[in-house]
Design brief:
- The complex is a heterodimer of chains A (112) and B (363).
- Chain A has a single domain, classed as Transcription Regulator spoIIAA (2-Layer Sandwich), CATH 3.30.750.24.
- Chain A is 45% helix and 29% strand.
- Chain A has five helices and six strands.
- Chain A has helices spanning 25-37, 55-70, 82-91, 93-96, 103-109; strands spanning 2-7, 12-20, 42-46, 50-53, 74-78, 98-100.
- In chain A, strands 1, 2, 3, 4, 5 and 6 form a six-stranded mixed beta sheet that branches.
- In chain A, helix 1 (25-37) links the parallel strand 2 (12-20) and strand 3 (42-46).
- In chain B, helix 3 packs parallel to helix 5 and helix 10 packs antiparallel against helix 11 (271-288).
- The chains are: A alpha/beta (112), B alpha/beta (363).
- Chain A binds chain B through residues 21-23, 52, 54-56, 58-59, 83, 87, 90-92, and chain B through 253-254, 272, 275, 278-279, 282-283, 285-286, 331, 333-334, 336-337, 340-341.
């Protein structure tokens, strides 16, 4: 599992890298929970370097979004493309989450 | 014409032919197909006694040729053979290759033998090569000479042992067209071949050999379009498969993925297909997760080159449980993905095992 975080003015950009599958999903969930617990309220998840996602990964994203919503925060996705986008589309997740073509576009739509 | 009953052949303790029974009628063209090493060539060699069968009987026109008193050279005249590697006499001209048998074994006069040889060489399209030597000919020409030499002995049946497998692809068709012509003219033939299209259109009966037996037989249409038995289906559809076994919930997903990827790469499957196979396997494994501590799971991924289709079979022992049952799932996310990647998805209980079969979408 590989994840990078970068603090921007109005949100934390989380870049997930490689695979978000049954093996890596628990670790991603743990890290994301730690960020939320650390009072981060707004996230942009950058999928640019993600090659593979399965339902295990989608569940983590869904659980994270729910947790954030409970705290009044929100999450936007950027650069969802290729095979990952196909999984989003066939599972119906493409319409559940707010998606943008770039990290900058996602940041611009989050409250300052 | 020929009746074979309970023929077997062992080399020391190695059983090549277990129990072959078949009747070959006059004018039949029989194609013998099957994987390498399943006794096809040995069967032909047993028929004309190049290999002595261990047991059984071969009756030709009422005479059991396995009888100690049988006249073996005479049997071979009735039943001539064309070999993979031509077996021409290299020190004799093409014409002499064709005349030596009739002159020496059948007592035919030289002039008559030569006249007949020239006719046969014309029949196989090599009338101009009568005075050449085998080494001056291409592989396809050599094999045509070998067929003409066979015909020179007026055989009642010709046995072809993979007549094109030693040839360059460019020369295969010239040999096959000669054999096709013989078939049209009513020659009785038994042909061991790996040329499936040829086997299909030249023969009126197909024997699929496997496990030292005639595993399945029928008309070309029956065997090629609607094979009944598992191994025949796999062979005809050129199925290659990959197996993996999981016996613990702590299985190594990445080790398995690496093996699946290697299998898919070997079949030259596109990247997207490889991705979908991995996703499908992971999603199915997620459905099985609650049961993996108590059961062993056998995964088979089978690719049919002919149909260009991929099939995944998950089979587990233990009590009847349908892992696709939505009432048993915490959510339907995985199942939704599976359904989207699958052309068909079904659960069945077979031989006290739970079986999930997925035919993947193409692409």
């Amino acid at each position: 599992m590989d994840m990078q975080t970068k603090k921007e003015e109005n949100a934390t950009v989380v870049t997930i890298i490689g695979r978000l599958d049954a093996v890596t999903a628990p670790e991603y969930e743990k890290k994301l929970n730690e960020l939320i617990a650390g009072a981060e309220a707004s996230f942009v998840v950058d999928f640019d370097q993600l090659d593979y996602i399965s339902s295990a990964g989608l569940r983590v994203l869904l659980a994270t979004a729910k947790r954030l919503k409970g705290k009044g925060g929100q999450m936007r996705f950027a650069n969802v493309k290729g095979a990952v986008k196909e999984v989003f589309d066939i599972s119906g997740f493409g319409s559940i989450f707010q998606m943008d073509d770039s990290v900058d576009a996602a940041l611009a739509k989050l409250p300052a | 014409m020929i009746t074979v009953e309970h023929l077997s052949k062992k080399f020391d303790n190695f059983v090549v032919l277990k129990d072959i029974s078949i009747e070959i009628k006059k004018g039949e063209v029989i194609a013998i197909i099957g994987p390498s090493g399943t006794g096809k060539s040995t069967f032909l060699r047993c028929l004309n006694l190049l290999d002595r069968p261990s047991s059984g009987s071969i009756v030709i026109d009422g005479v059991n040729i396995l009888d100690a008193k049988a006249d073996v050279p005479k049997v071979r005249q009735k039943m001539n053979m064309v070999f993979q590697s031509f077996n021409l006499f290299s020190h004799l001209s093409v014409l002499e290759n064709l005349t030596i048998g009739p002159i020496k074994l059948r007592g035919m006069g030289t002039q008559e033998a030569e006249q007949k040889a020239l006719e046969l060489l014309k029949l196989v399209g090599l009338g101009e090569k009568a005075n050449n030597y085998p080494d001056e000919l291409s592989g396809g020409q050599k094999q045509r000479v070998a067929i003409a030499r066979c015909l020179a002995m007026d055989p009642e049946i010709i046995l072809f042992d993979e007549p094109t497998s030693a040839l360059d692809p460019t020369m295969v068709s010239e040999v096959l067209s000669v054999i096709r012509r013989l078939a049209k003219e009513g020659m009785t033939m038994a042909i061991v071949t790996h040329e499936m299209d040829f086997a299909r259109d030249v023969s009126n009966r197909v024997l699929y050999m496997d496990e030292g037996l005639i595993y399945e037989e029928g008309t070309p249409q029956q065997v090629f379009e609607n094979p009944q038995k598992e191994k025949t289906k796999a062979f005809i559809n050129r199925v290659r498969s990959f197996n993996y076994q999981i016996s613990s919930p702590d299985y190594d997903l990445y080790a398995m993925n690496a093996e699946i990827e290697a299998f898919c790469e070997k079949q030259i499957l596109p990247r997207k297909t490889r991705h979908n196979v991995l996703l499908l396997v992971e999603e199915l494994l997620q459905l099985y997760n609650p049961y993996l501590s108590a059961t062993r799971l056998d995964i088979t991924l089978a690719y049919s080159e002919k149909k260009e289709s991929l099939e995944l079979v998950f089979e587990s022992s233990g009590e009847a449980i349908n892992p696709l049952d939505t009432n048993l799932l915490p959510d339907e996310l995985g199942l939704t993905i599976i359904n989207n990647l699958a052309q068909s998805l079904e659960y069945s209980r077979v031989n006290d095992k739970n079986r999930v079969t997925v035919l993947m979408n193409k692409g």
